[in-house]
Amino acid sequence: MAKIRLFTPGPVMIPDEVLLAAAQPLEHHRTQAYQNLLKEVTAGLQYVFQTSNPCITIAGSGTAGMEGALVSCARPGRKALICDAGKFGERWGKVCDAFGIERETYKIQWGHGAKAEKVAEYLAKDKSIGMVVVVYSETSTAAVSELEQIAKLTRDTDVLLITDAITAAGAIPLKTDEWGVDVVVTGSQKALMQPPGLAYAAISKKAQDVIQSVKPKAFYLSYKAYLKSLADNDAPYTPAITLVRSTHKALEMIKAEGIEKIWCRVSKLARATRAACEAIGLKVYAQDPVDSLTAVLTPEAVKVSTLRKTLQAKYGVHVADGQDELKGKVIRISHMGAVDEYETTGAIGALELTLKEMGHQFKLGAGLSAAQEVMAEG
User: Fold this and answer.
1) What is the CATH number of the domain that holds 317?
2) Which domain holds residue 263?
3) How many Cβ atoms are within 10 Å of 249's Cβ, its own excluded?
4) Number of domains comprising the chain
5) Are residues 241 and 282 located together in one domain of the fold?
6) What is the pTM of this model?
């Protein structure tokens, strides 16, 4: 029987300790015990986000967190600049449209990330832009944007920088306060290695001032409500208690390993996987590859749906298909969550065996050898 090995970009592999933490008996949430728990969770999130600012926890997916950020930070008469480099950049533009938030769109070729130079051009041309929305790690294309450089453009202005870090936070370098990012959103089922169901957001003082000054087109997802309750280490609405408890355990484990060490581990796994795929004739899709996941183009003779089904059925290895225009053209392999070098080389070996079975021509073991060379470098 094949063990389930999640190499999908969310959900990811979850440590047993995290799953067991969620299985403990429930306590009521309007208690000092829950407030103490949330206080520790908030401190753990501040460590992951590298911030001293408030970090809110929302029962909902990462999309809920991003929607809340957009509607809570939208100022009358000010536009949003949406950096659209893939499926998720496109989504945030659709959220703006749904709430009547005026926007400009910086359309980026898939496989590339947002560039600071181009964002600077938009900001210089249109002084009505009040927030820049950047997907740090575009999950649909496995491309990374120049977040740190873009933050330099906004940090000393009244323009807010809102960042979708859903497949970035806890996986790749993110220094919220040092860089000057105003709102950073992530979800539980990615690098924070938990079940789906929670969104988290770090909120700068500049963003807090804007949030307090506007009337959001939202109720449940109003950041204002979460910030008010967080002042008392509480939640404005019934929290997902079991998931908050699993968050506590996961953050405890992340801090024990060390966030910088995690960034290095994820980078090594990504570099090893890219080297392995190239060694067996698969081309890395992104021109600006991110380390949290890898997207590779599959050979024309290899049907992605068959490849994925075989990997899953024979080896328990789950990888993701592409999205929209990349559907059936790429596979996406995650490096987030509770995954190490041994498990990654195992997935590479399974990929080699499956491709060989499907008729792809390459030297068996070439990918494993290339991956091990990278890992041996340290």
Assistant:
1) 3.90.1150.10
2) 5-10+258-376
3) 21
4) 2
5) no
6) 0.96
Phi, psi (degrees; rounded to nearest 5) at 144: -115, 145
Q: Which residues pair with 105 in a beta bridge?
A: 82
Q: How far apart are CA 83 and CA 108, in angstroms?
A: 7
Report how far residue 166's alpha carbon sits from residue 340's, in angstroms, rounded to the nearest whole number: 20
- Which tens digit of pLDDT belongs to each residue from 78-104? 999 999 999 999 999 999 999 999 999
**Residue range 183-238, pLDDT digits in tens:** 999 999 999 999 999 999 999 999 999 999 999 889 999 999 999 999 999 999 99
CB of 160 closer than 8 Å to CB of 131: yes
Which of 257, 285, 305 marks a domain boundary? 257
Question: In the sheet where 55-59 sits, what is the strand order?
Answer: 55-59, 198-203, 183-187, 160-164, 129-135, 79-84, 103-107
Shared domain for 182 and 132, answered yes or no, is yes
